[in-house]
Amino acid sequence: MKKLIFRKFAKDTTFFFGLMCLVIGLIVWTLQAVNYFDYVVQDGHGLKTYFIYTILNFPKIIHRIIPFIFFVSLFYILIDYEMRNELLIYWTSGISKISFANKIIFFSLFLTIFQIVMGGFFSPYTQYKGREILKDSNIDFFTSLIREGKFINAVDGLTIFIKRKKDDDSFKNVFIDDSSKDISKMIYAKDGNIIEDEKKKVFKLFSGQVINKDKDKINIFEFDEIDFNLADFSSNTILVAKIQEIPSIILLKCRFGYQNKVSDLIRYSFNCDASLKDDIQQELFKRFYKPLYIPLIALVSCFLIIVPKNNNYYKRNRRIIFFMTFLILVVSEASLRYSSISQISTILYMTIPWMLFIFIYLIFFKKTKNA
User: Fold this and answer.
1) What is the pLDDT of residues 205-226, one digit of tens each?
2) 66 Cβ partners below 8 Å, 6+ apart?
3) Cα–Cα distance between 108 and 114 in angstroms, integer?
4) Helices (H) and strands (E) in the chain, counts
5) Of 230, 258, 263, 300, whose CB has the highest number of CB atoms within 10 Å?
6) Residue 204 backbone phi and psi in degrees, to 5
7) pLDDT at 65 exceeding the cut of 90
8) What is the rounded distance in angstroms from the CA atom of residue 59 to the CA atom of residue 55?
9) What is the DSSP secondary structure assignment for residue 138, as one 8-state letter?
10) CB-based contact 340:281 (threshold 8 Å)
11) Please, how many CA atoms are within 13 Å of residue 363, restricted to the half-sphere of its CB?
12) Cβ neighbours of residue 174 under 8 Å, at least 6 residues apart?
């Protein structure tokens, strides 16, 4: 009987948690997707690249919101059970409040493991895959970036100015400044058009001049028709993997001085040096240690079962617990930023969740030992 009761509670909490993760995750994902639209508007990537990149960033969002969603889910389910007198049925069935709290804490451990797996392995992998897609994609939306009377700086070392765009999608008075190579090149053409397909991507220019500057030498020649290759240029988008996109095994080896044994450093273009020591440590804490606050959130939420709804202090107790749990979420975020400042701050960061858990658990045990 008791197992069925706990199973129902776990099922209800899991369902509500999953639903909230999906809803809140999609809202946050939509807001981020709007920001990522700069990859299309300014950096010249195609809509397909943009869509895949935003999808691959969804696990990162879920990883970040898990503690907050768990807090909201547990808070809602416990209050709902209290209002429908289901908790009263638990107590009359012989289930003690401390036993019920222990089950909730045990349930939270599975979520803790899930967040560690999500943040430590799956989220960095999908984020890096998204970065690879940006890196491997060409300027596949270049034509749409052309605007009359505006300078286009969608790619590194290349500036294009179009005075007028004709109705047939050709261009009038084209100026190109190419400083991507050792030889600086400026091109002026009276007319031009972009030829873009799977095999090539060129700017075909007609009737103009090319000015090549190589150190102190300047060469000028005129042309009737030339092709300016666009396929060799990369976007202004940041293509080097960030720390949060690097696999955990590489970060661990870098943090503990085994960078010479990391064979994938070149692949990830990751500079594993001493200056990144604190950033790497903070990232590892975020992936593997911060989830330990989840059982603490579960424990504090369990104080909702101490005061029944017919008690005059019930509403005040709910507000206090909500504030305390929200404060723990804030502390978990804020303390992470200072976790690598010094050895003392690191020790404090690692001991705070354990000390709080033991202290709060003793208070809870004292209040429920006769219940």
Assistant:
1) 888 888 887 777 777 888 888 8
2) 21, 111, 114, 115, 118, 291, 294
3) 10
4) 14, 6
5) 300
6) -85, 120
7) yes
8) 8
9) -
10) yes
11) 11
12) 160, 161, 162, 163, 187, 188, 189, 190, 191, 192, 203, 205, 208
- How many angstroms separate the CA atoms of 146 and 148, rounded? 7
Task: Report DSSP letters for 209-271, one per residue.
Answer: EEEEEETTEEEEEEEEEEEEE-TT--BSS--SPPGGGS-HHHHHHHHTT-GGG-TTHHHHT--
Q: Which residues contact 123 (CB under 8 A, 6 or more apart)?
A: 59, 60, 62, 63, 244
Q: pLDDT band for position 39 (50/70/90)?
A: low
| Long-range CB pairs of 248-254, under 8 A, 24+ apart, other chains included | 248/120, 248/121, 248/124, 248/284, 248/287, 248/288, 251/280, 251/283, 251/284, 252/284, 254/280
Between CA 14 and CA 81 the distance in angstroms is 15
Among 128-142, 177-191, 306-320, the least confident range: 128-142
CA distance 313 to 299: 20
Q: Which helix (H) or strand (E) holds 108?
A: helix 97-117
Instruction: In whole angstroms, give the CA distance from residue 195 to residue 171.
Output: 12
What's the pTM? Answer: 0.74
Residue corresponding to tokens 């095994």: 249
Residue 137 pLDDT > 60: yes
CB 71 within 8 A of CB 296: no
Query: How far is 353 from 290, CA to CA, in rounded Å?
Result: 9
The values of phi and psi at residue 224, to 5°, are -95, -35
- CA proximity to 72, closest of 10, 21, 5, 11: 21
Which residue in this structure is represented by tokens 């979420």? 329
CA distance linking residue 256 with residue 287, whole number of Å: 16
Per residue in 261-272, pLDDT (tens digit) is 555 555 556 667
* Sign of the Cα pseudo-torsion (289, 292, 297, 300, in order): negative
Q: In what order do the strands lie in the sheet with 217-229?
A: 151-155, 158-165, 171-178, 184-196, 201-214, 217-229
Sign of CA dihedral 202, 203, 209, 213: negative
